[in-house]
Amino acid sequence: MIALDSSVLLDLLTGDATHGEASEICVGDALAREDVVVCEAVVAEVQALLDTSVSLVEILASIGIRFEPVREAAAIRAGLMHRRYRGRGGSRERVTADFLVGAHALLQCSALITRDAGFYRDYFKGLKLITPKLPRQAA
Q1: Which end of the chain has the least Cβ crowding within 10 Å, N or C?
Q2: pTM of the model
């Protein structure tokens, strides 16, 4: 399973002018290889930003992305990493949801598709990160 971060999912759903195409290609490639999943933190964040009452989980199911809840061990790891972040002087810019996404991907999935690789690399050592990029064009 490959986990999907909120930023990349929003790129897909909103057709983001800057990142949409790269995110669409990246997620499409991932879906061709294995299951792509989102946890409850991603569902809550993205559902709050959409102007619809339709369930995000239903929308995602129609494109092949499924919901995979955070397990107990991942929730505990998220809390520990968030405490570490705050202990290192981290600002309130990062919320618990960011740590839930990272711990879910690390402990329950094989990788995370994200545009925030620096943060996840720092707090979730060993997590394989996939960053959407446009393919190089031939010259």
Answers
A1: C
A2: 0.90
Q: Return d(Cα 118, Cα 134) in angstroms, integer.
A: 19
Return d(Cα 52, Cα 37) in angstroms, integer. 21
* Separation of alpha carbons 6 and 47, rounded Å: 10
> How far is Cα 3 from Cα 35, in angstroms, rounded to an integer?
9
CA trace torsion 86, 91, 93, 97 (10° rounding):
0
CA distance 134 to 32: 17
Distance of CA 109 to the CA centre of its chain: 11
**Residue 35 CB neighbours (<10 A):** 15
